[in-house]
Amino acid sequence: MRLPMPRPRAALPPPFRPYIFSRSDLIRLLLAIERTPLVDPLTMRTFLLFIYGTGARVYEAINLRVSDINFPNKLVSLRQFERKQRRVLPITRTLRNTLDLYIQSSAAQRRDADFVFVTHDGRPLKPNTLRYNFVRMCVRARIHQEEGHRATPGMHDLRHTFAVHVLEAWVQQGKDLRQMLPALSSYLGHVILKSTELYLRLVPERFVKPLSTLQSSLKP
Length: 220
Known about the structure:
Elements: H1 23-31, H2 41-54, H3 58-62, E1 69-70, E2 75-79, E3 86-90, H4 93-105, H5 107-110, H6 127-140, H7 156-172, H8 177-188, H9 193-197, H10 208-218
Antiparallel strand pairs: 1-2, 2-3
Helix pairs in contact: 2-4, 2-7, 7-8
């Protein structure tokens, strides 16, 4: 008699393990930018600073128009993929000045195009071109990741880095992350809060204060 066997269980999804760039990583990455046939160093530098400074998705940065930037009020309007609605984000004074300087410097190559980030001939940046350049930069900067299916991090990891660095700053300021998390979720354009909660496990510093309080309460 053949005994029935239990159905095989579906494999669990891999753990959420993005590459989080350290501050020194970011400096080395920017220093590793080189001139290429299509993208000049200033374009690449500003593009990466925009992603890190806003947590924008790569396609949102590619599709950014000059008309989407409200310089006086320090706001940018990001276009959602295949959706008409946008999300409007406040940006820092430093990022606003960086964008303003880049737009003025690249006016000649932009010509009549409204796109912010363009190639030497005024065309919008292509994802494949950006990925190729980014991999070269990571290799030159000696930035590698042990986990993942690629040897080097991806540009999307700058978005993850933005989220983690924001949470770390809030921990240092003594803010309640559970109360602040919805604001970060809205800023990142997440549909559900769970997508933002995944970043909490990447911020071990949030346990320092509770553990210190617990240790103090246990002292005789």
